[in-house]
Every structure is written in C-alpha cells, then in structure tokens.
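Quick entry, no commentary yet.
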Amino acid sequence: MRQEGWHTGNPRRKYLSVVYNGIDIWNNLSPYIESFSYEDSVDESDTISISLSDRDLKWSRTWLPEKGDKMSPSIILENWNYEGEKMTVVCGAFLVDDYSFSCPPFSCTINGVSAPVDTSFKESENTKTWENATVRLIANEIAAKYGLELIFEVSEDIAVSKTEQDKQPDSEFLKNLCEKYGLGIKVYSNRLVIWDLKQYFEKSPVLTIVPDMVSKWTYNSTIQGTYTGAKVSYANPNNENTVEILVGTEERLYKTNQKADSEADARRIGESILRNANRKERTMKLTIPPKMSLYATCNVKLSGFGNLDGKYFVEKVSHSLSGKSYDMQVSLSCISRDSENSEVESKNETAQTNGNTAHGNYTVVKGDSLWSIAKHFYGSGSKSQDLYQKNRDLIESEAVKRGKKDSGNGYFIYPGMSLIIP
C-alpha cells in the first residue's frame, strides 16, 4: 500500500501484517493488495475482505486459496498522530469462506469470517436436552468441544432448569440462549466471548466524539420494532398455574411465547427483549479518521450534536483501507440522551431523599415496578413480594380505583403512590 506523507521527516505509514496458514505472507502480498476491509460487529461474526490485483495470474494459479484457510491480519499505523508512534489493530483469526476472480483487469477478492477452525460449529445440526444447568456451564461445554477458550463476562451466572437444542448447529443454539437472557456472544481469536449487554451499557465512554472529528454522519429515530413493555409467562411453582407478568408499560407491548422458569427469570427475559429491541430506536452512523480506541461493544459520548448528544453503544466498526485512504465507519445505538441522563440523576436523588437506606417511604414514578424498586433498595428484585405485602392494602385499592380487578400481586403500581420501604 502507498505510504502517505506527513509533516515531519518520517512519513505516515499504514500497512497490514497478514499471517496465512501460519506463515507471514505480507512481503509477498503487498505488491498486489488494492484494498482491505475489516468489520468488527456486536451481532454478527467479524469479517474481512482483501482485494488483490492478479496481473501475474498467481492467485488464480499457484496461490489459489482454499475455503477453510486461516488468515490473521493486523492493521499497523506508524507516525500517525506524532513522530515515533506505532499503533496496531489485531483483527483476529479468520477462515476463508469464499473467494472470486474477475477480468479485466485481473483481480481476486478473498473474504474471511471469524469462526473456529472446526466449521461444524456453524454447520452441523445437533440435538440435546439440558437440565439443571447454567448458561456458563452450557457455553463452557460447547467451547471445549471446538477447542475455544471461554471468556464469560457476566457478573452472575444464569440458572437454566431445562432447555432443548433441537436439530440446531451449536453456534445458533448458543446464540439464541444468550439472546434470551440479554447476553452477547462472539468468536474472536479462538475465544468464545459472552458478555452482559446491560453491564456493557453501564461502562464509561472510551471517547468523546465532536462534530469536528466527523467527515460524515447520519441519524435515524424510529418506533418501528421498538417496545415500551413485554409480557412474559412462567409456571407458579406452588400450583403450576401460568402467571403472566408485565415488564415496562403497555403502550407498545411485545408478548413473547418464551417460557420462563420463575418470576426472576421472566423479569430478566422481559428486560432483555426490551433492551435488544430498543437498540434500534435511535441510531447514528459516523465516518471518522481511525481511532484505535473504538471497537464494537464499547461506549462513546457524542457532544456538540445538539439534541442528539448523549451516550451511545458501538454496534459495529468498519475499517476501510486503500492506497489513498483509511477511514472508519462507526454504527451507534443511543443508550441515553444527555437530557435523559439528567432525569435519571434527578430520580436517583429523589429515591435517596425518600429513604435509600431501606427505611422510609418511596414515591413511585413512571416506569417503576415493585421489582425495580426492590432491586434499587435491596440489590435484588426477588424482594419485591416483601414490598407488596407491606403495602398490599394501598396497592390493591389503587388498582381498583384505576379500573383493574386487582393489582396482579403488585404488578400494577402507579406514579404518585407512596410506598413504605421496610
């Protein structure tokens, strides 16, 4: 790739290091490369694409790639921001999944996907029933099956009383299981990484992006496919009756056919449904010069974009290199606007004033549930029934006033109610 001049004696340089089937081939590859792209994504497998000139017909003859070949590219920048600087983006390990040739001019494109060397992870259909397990136990067994190291970045493991894998590839089954509980999953450099989206949303931004840093941006806001609430059912362990709970509010309701194991399980599934669906509510795409601190699953802050300012989750980072340029396209989903951050801080201050020491009163605000209030004061939503029993008369009478038959064991509470926090 062509070197670009810089304002000191040392030039800015960008180039690739490519290890192909365990052999460093950059010296052989560099005269032919025309462009390279790398996509780092939350919901999809990472991908790479290399476009090459095949004027000597080496790629279509002697160097013909094969599907399943292993590539490990890295992007290297030298003297990019200051003299003597060297930055490296390790893209990971990829398998060649397709390649093509075209003429004229003679050219070759090689595409790779991040996956284990054993392709049966995504292709072979398996059937198995899991009982009295956890998400971590299931993930660990599947990871070991393909020689992957499991990285489980979830603060609390999730119990699974029973789940069935019915003629599904292991990758599809595990992805569906993780999505059910609001977990992300990704294969990267022979590691199977599982993380909690909620925990990642709570991380501090790694970078503040202002308009001067951006060469192009687009913003989109939609309610299509987004929800204010979700209904999830589970079997009451005392009488086996089906109990349906509401997470959120009823304005735009999603009703899932997924069955939960308990109330806590139903709450987590409902919260996960809303969190995943509402990631598309407010989105933004930016084109910026390379920032090595940006990667999928990190958070950034937008500042100077007016009402669009706020905290955003990085959904995808696309690196595009050619002889003339190196740009990054970054896809973001809004976690919270700056105005919403202020509302949350105000709400937290009100909660502290009303008795954040688990002794006193708390005034219900829009969006609250007994579960969320219990989690705030006690650290666990399972204490919600203690709150219900202490405030039962108030909760039931208020539900009747609002036209309900009853409160559904405390599922319906209303803004302005003053609850005793025992």
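second:
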Amino acid sequence: MPHLADGLGYSDKVEKVKPSGIRIFDNQVSKIPGIIKLTLGEPDMNTPEHVKQAAIRSIQNNDSHYAPQKGKLALRKAISNFLDKTIHVKYDPETEVVVTVGATEAINAALFAISNPGDQVIIPTPVFSLYWPVATLADANFVLVNTAKDGFVLTPEHLEKVIEENPKAKAVILNYPTNPTGVEYSEENIKALAKVIRKHNLYVITDEIYSTLTYGVKHYSIASEIPERAIYISGVSKSHAMTGYRLGYIAGPAEIMAQIGKVHGLMVTTTTDSSQAAALEALTNGLDDPKGYRKVYQKRRDFVVKALNDMGMETVKPQGAFYVFAKIPEKFGKDDMKFALDLANKEKVGITPGSAFGPGGEGYVRLSYASSDENLHTALSRIKDYLQKKGN
C-alpha cells in the first residue's frame, strides 16, 4: 500500500473543508446491526417504469457517445418547457439551460462561475451542508445566517441586516422547501426577499430540488420574481426517485450561463446519455409522476409529525420535501449529536443531528420519512421507548 512521498503537499483550501456531517454520522450508525436509518434524503420509491425503459432503450440503441456539453438539446427543450409551465419563466434552451450531474454539480458550477476571492455568499441555516464548503473551494467567504428565531425562514428584515454587516455580499443561496426543516417559503415572503436582493444588486442561487413535493401549499419560485439575477437549480432526483441517475439542471440569464457552462464542461465534460434519456422521458411523459409520491409522503409526514408531537418532541410542520425537524425535549439537553448517537446505540434508530445543518440546528434532529411505513412505525415506537426510559 503506497504512502505519499515526503515533501508532497496538498491544497490548504481542501484540507480545511470538513466532510459532510450528515454522511459522517450516517456512516457511523450504519455499522450498528439491525438499525433503522432515517438519516439520508433517499426516496424509497422506485423510478417510474416508463422512465427506466427510456434509459434501457438508450443503452440498447448504442446511445453511448459524448453528448453536447450543455446537455442534449431535446432535454434542454423539455426543461425549458417544464420551467415555463411551472415557474413561468421562459429560458432559451440553446443559451440559458445546462444539464448537470445532479444538483450538486450545478451548485458547484454556479458558485465557481460567480465568485471572486473575498466575495461573500449569504446562506440561511439550518440547511443542507453542501453550500458553505463549495463556497470555500470557490474562494468565496460564506456567511451563515441562523433563521431559527423566525420559524426557519429568512425574513427580508434579517437579510437587510446581514447585508449591512457584510458589504462584500455577492449572492444569497435559497433552498426551499428546505432540507432539513421541510419549511416552504410563502409567495409573500419570496416577493419581499426579491426586493431586498434587487435593491442590493445580488445574485440569488435558488435550489428548488424539492419544489414538486409540497403539501397543501403552492410553490412560488424566486426566479419568477427576479429572473434577471436568479440562478435556478433543480433536477429529477427527488421528483422521480432518480437519485442514482445523477441528473440535475441549471438555468439563468445567458450571460452568466455562458460562464457556468464553461465550469460545467471543465468539471464533467457532459452528463451520461442514458440518464439524459430517462430525464427527457420524466419531463415529457412523467409530469404527473410526483403526484403519487406526494400522496404517500404526505400520509407519512402526518403520521411522523403527530407521533413526535405526542412524545413531546416539538416539530415545525413541514410543507415540503420529506423531512421532519424535531426539537429534543429540554430535559435531555441540547447536545443533538450525543442524543442521536445514544438513540442509535440503544434503540437502533438512526436520525441526523441538527447541528450538521449549521447554526440554528443545535438541539434538533432530522428524520427522513422517505422510508417504508413499516420502518417508520417501528422507528417511532423505538424513539418513544427511548424517551420513556431516558425520562424515568
């Protein structure tokens, strides 16, 4: 087994970036025999059959050569049509849409394309813990904004204050419905945030990967309000249970998309042919597929929220995605990592410590209800037993 030669170093920037707390915790508890994991945002549904068949046909038809760097035009047209219907913004498929390797690559390409050394990127938390390490790698400085006191929503007043304190702000990142809280932003709130972002001449990178999974509310994209400064990110991972296909997309004004396209090409060259074929099918003949998932997820959400509240674990009722963010009862303290590890070891239930999602997550835990009904019922029963035993 080789060892690195003496005197060879590596990037100081990369060394300082910490691995995902979500993955670290998941890897740790995955070693526990018999554990039920509600840790990862992984749909337990299967990809729709007609979408799978489209991928199979792509392979059988020897669709195995380099695709256009920005993605196949037919798929970019389908994405453009989909966004026109859903968020009412017309993106030119030739110049304003890029197909990426999941939303993760889209986030990387966007931040690398807009950032100069010293630029500040404002990130409301608690939120998915990818954004600030990527900002670091892109030579930007991140500003984590704790939204816990405002119901886990970034208010325009709070944003104004943060911008005043951070005069080098270049962009705001929004993710909604939000991972880990499931909180959705109202149209009123989005319009107010858009005014602040326009006033201060900022970009908004809006990650709306969960926008098709909302419950009882209508999703309103900030790209509808300020398309001239919005970089819109989404994909088919959550909407069509296609996480393994790694198919995302990014849309925005042509001028910035030309730069994002460059970064995308340098990162990955292009996305996989069969995944693009599957996504094309999903976004043309599978627009109703998420309705079935929503029905199942909403039933699970209602069960998990009620069960946790009955146990004394206060939750913010999620209006989207497939997570519940629950507050640890005060008598158990605020050490969410200790709480989650103890629960995993004693009752064999894996839930993610809230501190993995940044400021405002401390003292909370995230449960993913993208798991079977059987697993959810068993896990919630075990959590109830744990709380009762621990409380005695």
